[in-house]
Design a protein that fits this description.
The chain has 44 helices and no strands. The protein has 833 residues and is mainly alpha-helical.
Length: 833
Amino acid sequence: MLLLRPIVHSFLLLASTVSSVRAVDLEEVPEYRAVRQALLDGLPAVAAMKATRLMEAAEPQSTERQTLASLAVEAWVRARDGRAALVILQKEKVPNADFWVAQAHVQAGELDLAEKLLTSRMRENKATSQERFLLAQVSLATGNLTQAREILEPLRKNEDKIISTRASRMWDEVELRAGRVQQALADLLLPDQPLDDKARLLLAQGLVEAGKQAEAQAQLRELVSGTRGGERVHHAASILLADSFFRQNNLTQAIDVLVQFLDNTAESDLWSSAFDLLAQCLMKQSQVSPPDATLRWLAEGNAAQRAALTAPATTSMFQGHAMLLLARWLTSRDRNFEALGLLEAQLQVHVGHPQTEEAMQLALETYSAGKADARVAALTEMWRHRFGAKGSSVIEFITAGTAFTRGDFPRAAELFQTAANLATTLAERRSALYNAGVAALRAGELALYHSLLSQLQVVSADASAQLQLDRALELAAKAKPEAEPELRQFIQQNPQHPRLFEAQITLAELLLLRVPTDFAEVDRAIQTAESTPGIIDKQRERVLLTRLWRLDRQGRLKELTEIGTTFLKAWPAASQAALVRMKVADAYFRLENFAAARTEFELVAKDTTASPYADTALYFAGMSSLSMMSDEGRETAISLWQELAERGGPLSIPARQQQAMAKRRAGQEAEALTLLDSLLAEENLSKELRRSLTCEKVEILMVLGKSDASALTAAISLLEEFLRGNDLPFQWRARGGYTLAVALHSAGRDTEALEASYDVVQATGYTGPADPAEFRWFYRAGFFGIDLLEQGKQWEPAARLAEKLATTSGERAPEAKERATKIRLEHFLWDGK
């Protein structure tokens, strides 16, 4: 019968040393405070890297170094990187070193080394309560229940309430594992003892084992419908609820619970347990068939996976589980040929599946029953190639079974003995020895038979008026609000003044600057200026120019090009002809008529070379050519910018920059990189331009890094140097940090990538983004960090980071809030906030 054993007490620290690992001098160091903040934010790997760097920069043998070493070790252990912690422990002096060494061994999966060290400390009577508790955890994990119980008994009476409570919960788990259900229930049901969700799950498990299914189901339904306790508790409760129904022989409800769980979890490390229980339900009664969802699961995964925008990586794993489930059911119905087809597909399509061993074992057993010795031999070799000695007892057992079926009893006895010697569990060894004995008996080898029997045991007015007008014009040139009333006063008081037109057209131009603009009033002002008696052609030019600006402000670009063309035909030699043509060219560009725009810009550049617009026109002629999205257009743009670069004017550097970007778009990254390097070698670049060029160089290196690891390494090094600048504004620090995170992720260095994203969001001493550009990079870094945390299944810190983004005032704050809520609800981390 299924016994669900959630590890309620995983290998985690009993108490944080963050508060104790303090040094007065270090408290003044922003980097040290950043380490502690990262730990509080649930990002121990980020904290560990920061602490390790600070430690390595501290003086050897100093108090600061020892403090930082302790903090780094704790952070690495919390990040479950025991090997990184051991590296520090081997080189540095750390308080309570034995405990940390043992913790590091546990996180490294070296339970035997941890147990040996802690047992030695126990014998010498030097073990602290933390060390004793850790040894109990190790004992429970290795199945040494007697030792775990002996250690936990006194710890349950410890004065430290945290230790005593955790010891009691672990003791309850030991009792349940050992079959002493009533003792566990008595402890869990003590009055005035609040139980968290994990303890309630243990209680429910005890009730299931005690046969009190109605009480267990009440507890489990509350856990399943809750939003707290964590994803694993919720998933375990669902499976245990199904197990409870199974024990009541209520297969319909058991299957319904399992199907609902399996169809609505995009990912779970308890899928294997759920599918195993579902298989038991299907095979318990001959009339029970696989649920209708099974074939859908085989083809496209479950409902939660199909609802995702992109198929999760776990879909294939889920399909493999479904394939094995159906194969199991088919073998139970003696439909072995169909079952073997599914098993062979599972082994070939879902390589590395967590139930590959089970699938291969079922295939071996089925082929062996069918006396397909050649395929048994081939699968045996495949097993050894994939798993080495792991599970060898199973292989030897099945191979022995094949020999037994053939009547080769001596060979069967030999292989069953080998299987017994390779067994990792008592049950495996017993079965193998028993079968070896039967084979030996059949072979007539009585001595061997008796030996085997004896063996059966793991993320002036005029002048005054002139002066009045000059003042109003000066105010208008500065866009001062007093300009409009002074111009109106001049026009009203001086209707026959020779400079009346100048005042009227200036008023029209000023009205164009109003927000919001009253275009009807602008038109009346232009018409009044145009109807001024005795205006000359030069003044008519200005009227037409003002109309052009009005059309531009209104976005009536097509009319602008028509009026501009009319102007150029009427006054081709006008002093403002180049400006008008530039305006027409700009309108064509904005209308995305890039061919016409290029023609007009080139005419300005070639026909009015002395014009102040010539270089700008040549620059935008290149932009127009490039925007035509053709190879010829791109090459023309590069040629135009080369001409501009050779002139050496103020636009020569932007032209060279555009050349580099054009080559990048053409896939000529190496040439683009050479151009950027030549630009970065210029001594008189502004800080902003140098920063922009550096980021562009990094992006090109990252493109090259897809096929050349050295280019990606160079990009990372350049970004790290870039971010070391002390005068770096937040916009550039955020852009650089986000880009560094992406580069590190591409290099497979996800913990460092997470740190880079976190540093942008945290930004020591920073109060938040101030403009859209800052917000853009801030959010990109934050959401990228959330993505990394979710990929690493670090749901709580992912939710916290999303909540941090949600407190900002930018446009993506609501998105962050939704993301945080989604994470907490989907992974049962909701605490009522």
